[in-house]
Amino acid sequence: MKNCKSFYTTYYILSVISLLIVSNAAILKAQNVPLVNITGRNTTSLDGDWQIIIDPYESGFYDYRHKESGNGFFRNEIQTDKTQLIEYKFTKEHVLKVPGDWNSQDPKLFYYEGTVWYKKDFKIKNILDKRLFIYFGAANYESIVYVNGTKVGTHIGGFTPFCFEITSLIKKGNNFVVVKVDNKRNMSGVPTIMTDWWNYGGLTRDVYVVEEPKTFIQDYFIQLKKNSFDQVEGFVKLNGTTSKQNVKIEIPGAKIEKTFETNASGYVNINIPVENLSLWSPGNPKLYKVFVSSGNDKIEDRIGFRTISTNGSNIILNGKSVFLRGISIHEENPLKGRRAYSIKDAEMLLGWAKELGCNFVRLAHYPHNENMIRTAEKMGLMVWEETPVYWTIDWKNKNTLANAENQLSEAIERDKNSASIIIWSMGNETPVSDARNKFLIALSKVARKTDGTRLISAAMEKHTNEGDPLTQIVQDPFADYVDVLAFNEYIGWYEGLPVKCSKVKWKINYEKPVIITEFGADALGGYHADKLTRFSEEYQEDLYKQQISMLKKIPQLRGMTPWILCDFRSPRRVLPYFEDGWNRKGLISNKGIKKKAFYVLQNYYKELKASSSLLK
Ligand code: GCU
After folding, report:
1. Which residues contact 466 (CB under 8 A, 6 or more apart)?
2. Which of 211, 222, 474, 542 has the fewest beta carbons under 10 Å from its own?
3. pTM attached to this predicted model
4. φ, ψ for residue 100 (rounded to 5)?
C-alpha cells in the first residue's frame, strides 16, 4: 500500500511540474507577435524611470554553482522580518531612463557589457474583453521578459522590435514587468564581437502595453505592385479569429474603399485598382491616410506610394532615373554621445542630411528606430536599411544564420509599408568565402520572399591584384544576387594619400547601378593644418574633392553615401587627442561643427541637383 501511495505522490508531483513546464513552454511558444504600426494602436507608454539592478555576474539568474537558481527574476520582495535574507531588491533610487542606452546615463556603465535588470510597475484599469501585449521597440542585445513574475519570452538582436501577449498574466490594478537585458558581445552573434561602433546596452527604444480587441488587425502590407502605377497589392492578417471575416481598406485621398473577406485564419491577399495617385518622391513626399478596419478594430496609417526598380545601370524611381545623393548615418545623437531614439533626434540628424542636399540616407549598420524611418518618409529621404551582418560573422553556424534571418524579417515586418525604404542591405564588408556567399544568398532569399517590391544590396568591397595597385576591381560572387552593386573604398585614407584617387582606374564588369557606400577620412573638428596633415579638416576636405573627381568617372555610378554624417563613438578609436573613443570621419563633429568637407559634398550635390539629366 505504502509503495502505491508513494507512487501516486510522485506521480502527482511530476504531473504538477510537467504542467508548469508545459504552461511555461506554452507561454514561451506564444513568443513574438509582430504588431505593425505600433503608434497607430491603443498603447500605454511605459517610458520613463525603470528601477534597475546592475548584475555583471547574473546573480539574479544563476547560483554559486552557475546553475539557474530558479530565481530567474527579481521578485518584488517585501522584507517581512530582519532575519530574512534578501539579496536582490529593486529600489526607487537606482533607476535608468527608458528609452535610452545605459552607457550614457551612468559613468559606471560607460563601458559596461553585461546584464542589467529593469523593473517597471504599471496599472491596468480594465481588462474585460481585451487582449494585452507588451511591446519593445528594441533592446540590445539579448532580453528575457517577465510579467508579474512569469517568464513570457526572450529576444535576441539589438535593433528590431519584439512583442509578447500577456493577457493571461495581467491583473486589474497593479502589475509589474521585469526585463533582463544583456549586451555582451559573442562570436556567433549578429553582429559578432568586432564592430566599429559603441556597444550601447539597454532598453534603447520605447516600451508600450498594447490593448487589442479579442480579434484584431495584427499585420498588413499595402504598397504599389512592383513596376505598376495602377495596382495596390499586399495582405491583411487578423489575429484571434477562426472564421472568415470582412476587412475594409479606405484611402480617402485616392477615393478608395474596398472590402475583402479573409480565410478562416484571418488572412487575405489584397489587390486594389488605383489611378492618378500622387506618387511619393523626395520632391513630393506625399503620404495618404490609410484606414484598415475589421469588426470593432480600426487602425490608421500614413502610407506613401511609389515604385522602385533598376534598368541596366539606372535606378528607376516612379519611372525615372534617379541619382542617390546620400550620406551614411549611425543611430547616435553625437551632441549627447548616446543612442538616438526620439523624433527630435531623427529631425536633427535627417535635417543635417537635407542641409547637405541629400535625397537618400544609408542607415548603418543595423535597423534604426522607427522615428528615423517615419521622419525620413516625411522629409522625402529615400533609405538604405541594413541588417547587422558585419565583418567576420560566424558564417558556418546555423544558429547565426537563423538569428540574421530573424532580424532581417523583423526589420521588414516593421518597415515594409514605408515608401522611404528602397533598399534592403544584407550586410557590410563581409570577407568573400563559400560559407559567406551561402549565408548572404540565404538572407537575400528571405528579403525577396518577404518583400518583392524593394531592391536588394550589400556594402561589399573592392580589391586590387598583386603588383597592380592602381586597377581597382569590384568582383564579388554575391554581386549576381543584388539589384544594386554597392561597395566601400577608402582610397586616400586607409590606402595611400588623396592624390592616389587621380591615378586609379576602376574595373567594374557589371551592368548594374553602382553606389559607393563608404569613402572618407578622419578629421578632428576645428583642427586646421595643411592638406597632407592627417586628422586635419584640410586633409578631409582634399580627400572629398579627390574622391568625387575620381568617382564621377565610373559610368555606372548612380549614388553615394560617404562615411559619415557625424562623428560617432567607437571603442576601437583610442588615439589620444584626435580620437579619444570617437571615429572622426563625420562631416559634422560631436560638437556640431560642420567641417570643411561638409561644404565640398554639399556643393557637389547642388551641382548634381541642378543637372537636368537625373531626377531630383
Ligand atoms: C568600414 C566600416 C565602418 C567603419 C569605417 C571606418 O568601412 O564599414 O563601420 O566605421 O570603415 O573605418 O571608419
Report:
1. none
2. 211
3. 0.94
4. 160, 140
Burial 85-113 (b: 16+ CB within 10 A, else e): eeeeebeeeebbebbbbbbbbeeebeebe
In a domain, 616, yes or no: no
Same domain for 374 and 271? no
Confidence of residue 73 (pLDDT cuts 50, 70, 90): low
What's the total number of domains in the chain? 3
Same domain for 220 and 208, yes or no, is no
Q: What percent of the chain has pLDDT over 90?
A: 87
Give pLDDT tens digits for 2-28: 344 444 444 444 444 444 333 444 434
Q: Domain range spanning residue 188?
A: 2-212
Q: What CATH code is carried by the domain that includes residue 205?
A: 2.60.120.260
**Could you tell me what percent of the chain has a pLDDT over 70?**
93
Q: Which residue's alpha carbon is nearest to atom 6 within ligand 1?
A: 196
Asked if the structure places residue 139 within a domain, the reply is: yes
**Are the CB atoms for 332 and 369 separated by under 8 Å?**
no
pLDDT in tens, 185-221: 999 999 999 999 999 999 999 999 999 999 999 999 9
Final residue belonging to a domain, choices 154, 179, 212: 212
Domain contains 615: no
- Ligand 1 within 6 A of 192 CB? no
Mutate to test the pocket of ligand 1, among 518, 566, 582 (most ligand atoms within 8 A of CB): 518
Rounded distance from Cα 164 to ligand 1 centre (Å): 35
199 inside domain: yes
More confident residue, 616 or 603: 603
Q: What is the CATH number of the domain that holds 234?
A: 2.60.40.10
Verify cis geometry, omega within 30 degrees of 0, for the bond prior to 99.
yes
Is the distance from the beta carbon of residue 518 to the nearest atom of ligand 1 less than 6 Å? yes
- CA 551 to ligand 1 center in whole angstroms: 19
d(CA 171, CA 177): 12
Same domain, 411 and 551: yes
